[in-house]
Write a structure and sequence with these properties.
The chain is of the alpha+beta class. The chain has one domain: Peptide deformylase (Peptide Deformylase, Alpha-Beta Complex), CATH 3.90.45. Helices cover 27% and strands 32% of the residues. The strands form 2 sheets. Strands 2-3-4-5-6 form a 5-stranded antiparallel β-sheet, with helices on both faces. A two-stranded parallel ribbon has the order 1-7. It is globular and about 40 Å long. 32% of the residues are buried. It is an enzyme of class 3 (hydrolase). Belongs to the polypeptide deformylase family. It comes from Deminuibacter soli.
Length: 192
């Protein structure tokens, strides 16, 4: 089932999400719904707060970025051809490497894209969709998507990384998003 994406301004996007217990009801169905919602919205990552749940789950599929790149661009990133993963109860262990810019966007903040600097490498502990524990290190585009989605479960948004003047310049657009004065080609819910 395709879930509505929560728009900027909704309080759930600013809450630190809670770890879930193994007996969380209908977990597999919720994960399937997240995948379906992410793909239907043309996203490469989706976190539970973006669909109104303050729980520590996010999904990523960085392979989609590589599928749409020219062959010579794929060599620029060490994580080609990308990864598709579910992260449950994730906690970052370390961030390493030089910070590099990439033009990020967010399904909850449509039609706004800005360069954000993030470290090259992330090491993260998490449970997979079968609730098996992992601690893995990711780099390149995959590391960036993981950091972006991880921010969502920490109550943070990519616009929080922007300089105050840039954020102030975007305030009108952000206000329009929070009031529902925006058209997108996927289901959204807006803060009241």
């Amino acid at each position: 089932m395709i879930l509505p994406i929560v728009a900027y301004g909704a309080p759930v996007l600013r809450k630190v999400a809670q770890d879930i217990a193994p007996e969380y009801p209908d977990l597999q169905k919720f994960i399937e719904d997240m995948w379906e919602t992410m793909y239907a919205s043309s996203g490469v990552g989706l976190a539970a707060p973006q669909v109104g749940k303050d729980i520590r789950i996010f999904v990523i599929d960085s392979a989609q970025i590589f599928e749409h790149q020219e062959e010579d661009e794929k060599d620029e990133y060490p994580d080609a051809p990308g990864f598709k993963k579910v992260f449950i109860n994730a906690h970052i262990v370390s961030l390493e490497g030089d910070e590099w810019p990439y033009n990020e966007g967010c399904l909850s903040i449509p039609k706004i894209r800005e360069d954000v600097f993030r470290p090259e490498t992330v090491t993260i502990s998490y449970l997979d969709e079968n609730l098996q524990p992992h601690t893995d290190t990711f780099n390149g585009i995959t590391a960036r998507i993981i950091q972006h989605e991880y921010d969502h479960i920490e109550g943070k948004l990519f616009i929080d990384y922007l300089k105050p003047l840039k954020k102030k310049m975007l305030q009108g657009k952000l206000n329009d998003i929070s009031k529902g004065k925006i058209k997108v080609d996927y289901k959204m819910t807006f803060a009241k």
